[in-house]
Amino acid sequence: MLKIYEYLDKHNEEHLQQLIEFLKFPSISSKSEHNNDVRNCANWLVEHIRSIGGENVRLYETGGHPVVYADFLHSDNAPTILVYGHYDVQPVEPFELWNNNPFEPIVKDNKIFARGASDDKGQLFIHIKAFESILKVTGSLPINIKFLFEGEEEAGSNHLDDFIKNNTELLRCDSVVISDTEWFDFGLPSICYALRGIAFVEVKVKGPNRDLHSGSYGGTVDNPAEVLANIISRLKDKYGRITIPRFYDGVLELTQEEKDEFARLPFNEKKYCESLGIRQTFGEIGFSTLERVWARPTLEVNGIYGGYTGEGAKTIIPAEASAKISMRLVPKQNAEEITKLFVDYIREIAPPTVALEVKALHGGNPVITPIDTIWMQKAKVALKDAFGKEPVFIREGGSIPICETFQNVLGASPVLIGFGLPTDNTHSPNENFSLENFFGGIKAIANYYMLLKE
Amino acid sequence: MLKIYEYLDKHNEEHLQQLIEFLKFPSISSKSEHNNDVRNCANWLVEHIRSIGGENVRLYETGGHPVVYADFLHSDNAPTILVYGHYDVQPVEPFELWNNNPFEPIVKDNKIFARGASDDKGQLFIHIKAFESILKVTGSLPINIKFLFEGEEEAGSNHLDDFIKNNTELLRCDSVVISDTEWFDFGLPSICYALRGIAFVEVKVKGPNRDLHSGSYGGTVDNPAEVLANIISRLKDKYGRITIPRFYDGVLELTQEEKDEFARLPFNEKKYCESLGIRQTFGEIGFSTLERVWARPTLEVNGIYGGYTGEGAKTIIPAEASAKISMRLVPKQNAEEITKLFVDYIREIAPPTVALEVKALHGGNPVITPIDTIWMQKAKVALKDAFGKEPVFIREGGSIPICETFQNVLGASPVLIGFGLPTDNTHSPNENFSLENFFGGIKAIANYYMLLKE
Predict the structure, then answer these.
(1) Is B306 in the A-facing interface, judged by CB distances under 8 Å?
(2) Residue A156 sits at the chain B interface (C-beta within 8 Å)
(3) Which residues of chain B make contact with A207, given a CB cutoff of 8 A?
């Protein structure tokens, strides 16, 4: 490893320049005027991987932006790792809040500022440079590796599911590695081992056949906005517990070890509240903030609307009112089952004075990767070696739907070794990536690949 | 009276042609491009009243459209009646749903179709023709009369309040008569003796300083849309009773006579539900539908909004959520007091996790005119004589804010003798006015004026 570390230290500047080249492509996947930029970026990636020794490097067409694939499969008795990442980026608006052109990267305060620097070009590039350094220094690779780089992650990953299902042989692997998450804090290497799932539902309450004058009808006709409010008010009790029957059935409880580990993390509730502008947190009774957001299922009204919402007064009983409601799920809840419980419950509590329309918008199951596998334990060793600091195992409250596909279709639980920081401003102006984490990340991943051969 | 009735029968066609002339002015007060039309209409009215013997006929300028005033004050020992009406009309959109040009009146099925036919030009004109017929037949008037015709009723009556307050001497009277309401049903003359008041409030619940990702924060931060739903759900109990403390204090209960009278009206609950497209009515327990809408205070959510309301899913905890809420008030509630009770209550029940902003948008007090006065009892006699059918005393669920001003500033409770029908389509396409009610209305009002001298 020392030789590899030496090689990397010597080529820092070269790797940074290559990353800058990569970041210059405005590969914004959600805007069709950037279709060519996305493709040019994919082509650059293909050329680059080919130039450093990747094999079978090519674009695969999908219904949308192409997938970049490459592999290096020469170690018959070693495991095969699939590395997933994405080369597309978020839009840059509001442009005026950037201190530099988001596609003219600049280095400042030991960070590189550009759209995609952290999410996910910088993190994806870590794997390419790790691969390169081992190949350059040892002449081969200790494991088999497959790269799968998507161009639509920021636009909903609309075609990746099908691509994976249609190419199971091509993508067959023992483990999936993804670098697209964040450390808990600066200087604290983190491995994410669980993601929440989601069940998203739209509820519409329909009352009279038209908006009614609240003078002529107020007091005689049940009001859809009030019925909706009543339904929502009956989804949680005053202790923050969700009241849908059987909602918590089968929820995987945290172990005492996990609770202890969460409690040791440098989390400051006061600063947390200050940064959000709230007086105090609120959530399910009996759990800490991190436990609530990482390991407990929750329910949130994401939007509500009905009746007159313009300026001033208009005195009507609205004909209908709607709410968008999502539930975050934890292992071992199932999105379809939870959606059904939700629908059954609100149909049961809705009064006979109104009609109910419920639409399940989408769902995704939670993912958990056991910590005690070699994939996770070796990640811990590799990170500690590269950064000189004991990594922590954390969870994430959000969802990465593709992880479920990897698990179900390829049978490989994702190992989430991210190198982002909470200060990276992903999806926001002035996105940046710490050079310490970039260079250290390459060492850690190279180390990880080496460790996996044993 | 027989001579007056004869005179009227002989001049039916002439009066109809004059009404058609009056209806041809597109006096839409809420649209500035019709400012000249409104003024031309007012001038026509001035000329017409002058031509039939009205005195002191003139326009009074206000900050908006002018007021038409006229009087005839020659009966020293008789009462003085102020007749209020409005010569402006609602917009005509959607134009394509009209069967005729709304300002080219046509007569069909014994109705006249035009914008303003019923609301309120046709009903206003009844008073002018009643005045004319008495003057023509008897050479004088048995009472003193003042006409006050507004040009801004459909645009909020923004200047009438001030006009009345600044001209109390000019407008001094013993009783105010308004013909701008509806009969309960076809063929059933109705006198309205009570209107509800209103208190309109906007509530904003403010949570975090920005919309939050519901994956990263769901379960830890109280959700403004849910808090708002909880507040709304605590404004009424499941029996439809408003739960704001002291809300019902002082509410004037219906007498047994009133309840009996309401119960005798030809109200069909099944047809009512069918016409509204609802399965059943809902309201305060222990009261009939008519009692609820006419004589009970109510609370309605008129609009609610917060968070993401566009198409599809966006998983956020909204930074804030708002609702527009109005309460209809009955005698002897007071809009200011009720607003205060409302605000105090929701401040009390709102949790400490959010900030509350409450804005009182506007208010108006309820109005009730005792039935046993000569003004009301003679109206009953006059209507029975003209239409050959016993009139009913009804209430109205809506509010006519100017009635409160007449009551407070001039000390005269309004006598609401309307001639509209529920089928008149006021404020809608194909507005119309029954010629039977137009011609019969002139007789009834002429009769009323004659009766008041005694």
Answers:
(1) yes
(2) no
(3) 278
Q: How far is CA A338 from CA A250, A297, A327, A333, A402, in A?
A: 11, 10, 8, 7, 20
Both tokens assigned to A100: 């530099």
Cα separation, A146 vs A83, whole angstroms:
6
Contact A352 B280 (CB under 8 A): yes
Those residues whose C-beta lies under 8 Å from the C-beta of residue B406, and which sit 6 or more positions away, are B82, B84, B164, B176, B412, B413, B414
Distance of alpha carbon A21 from alpha carbon A363, whole angstroms:
37
Q: Determine the angle formed by the axes of helices A121-138 and A2-23, rounding to 10 degrees.
A: 140
Minimal-distance CA residue of chain A relative to B275: A209
Tell me the residues of chain B between 327 and 346 that have a Cβ less than 8 Å away from chain A: 328
| Contacts with A324 from chain B: Cβ below 8 Å | 307-309, 313-314
The secondary element (H helix, E strand) that includes residue A86 is strand A80-86
Reported CATH class of domain A2-195+366-452 = alpha beta
**Contact map slice: B 193-252 vs A, CB within 8 A:** 196, 198, 200, 207-210, 212-223, 225-226, 228-230, 232-236, 240
Cα(A130)–Cα(A443) distance, integer angstroms: 7
Which fold, B197-251+297-364?
Answer: Alpha-Beta Plaits (3.30.70)
CB A243 within 8 A of CB A235: yes
Return d(Cα A340, Cα A342) in angstroms, integer. Answer: 5
Is A123 within 8 Å of chain B by CB? no
Answer yes or no: do B198 and A215 touch at CB < 8 A.
yes
Chain B from 36 to 95: CB within 8 A of any A CB: none
- This complex has an ipTM of 0.89
User: Which of A220, A318, A397 is opposite residue B216, by nearest beta carbon?
Assistant: A397
> In angstroms, what separates the C-alpha of A270 from chain B's closest C-alpha?
13
Mutant choice from A235, A287, A300, A367 vs B, greatest count of B C-beta within 10 A:
A300
How many other C-beta atoms are found inside a 10 Å radius of the C-beta of residue A33?
Answer: 8
Per-residue pLDDT of chain B (454 residues; tens, 9 = 90+): 899 999 999 999 999 999 999 999 999 999 999 999 999 999 999 999 999 999 999 999 999 999 999 999 999 999 999 999 999 999 998 889 999 999 999 999 999 999 999 999 999 999 999 999 999 999 999 999 999 999 999 888 889 999 999 999 999 999 999 999 999 999 999 999 999 999 999 999 999 999 998 988 999 999 999 999 999 999 999 999 999 999 999 999 999 999 999 999 999 999 999 999 999 999 999 999 999 999 999 999 999 999 998 887 788 999 999 999 999 999 999 999 999 999 999 999 999 999 999 999 888 899 999 999 999 999 999 999 999 999 999 999 988 889 999 999 999 989 999 999 999 999 889 999 999 999 999 999 999 999 998 6
Q: Tokens in use for A273?
A: 């509240």
Task: Judge: A215–B306 Cβ closer than 8 Å, yes or no.
Answer: no
Count of beta carbons in the 10 Å neighbourhood of residue B61? 10
Class of domain B2-195+367-452: alpha beta
- Provide the residue ranges of all domains of chain A, joining segments of one domain with +: 2-195+366-452, 197-251+297-364
pTM of the predicted structure, to 2 decimals = 0.89
Scanning every residue of chain A, which has its alpha carbon at the shortest distance from the alpha carbon of B241? A219
